[in-house]
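ARCHIVE CARD
Drawer: 12
Card no.: 0347
Subject: one protein chain, sequence and derived structure
Cross-reference: see card 0346
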Amino acid sequence: MTYERFQQLAEAYGGDMARWPVAERDQAALFMAQEPDLARRVLEADAELDLLLDGWRMPAASVRLQDTILAAAPASRRRGLNPMAWLWGAGAGAGLAAACAAGLVLGVALSDAAPLQPTDEAVTAALASYDELSGLGVGEGA
């Protein structure tokens, strides 16, 4: 880290290195080890400014300023209570539930319509696929 960069960081973040970006702290610590007098002078100069800034408090806004801001603010829109609004939400929920139930009933009905009969060929093909997927060849294993 250069002296200029160290000074920029101190001016931007203050004399307390705990306020500095984490990514810059290690390089700053190395700079402090190499140039302790320069680093100390920079941090002390910015520590004084930190004390002044930490002690400063924003004055409270005057009543006149508050009234001006409130007068310029857009009026709040009050949402009217629609007695039928809950019905629309309930109807949509009921419709989705009915669609799910119909899909479940149709799926069960179609699965019962064409029962599968396992054949020797189907069982052999399934077992062969299992051996390929498991990485075990025929006759291998524990």
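Annotation on reverse: The chain is about 70% helix and 0% strand. The chain has a mean pLDDT of 80.
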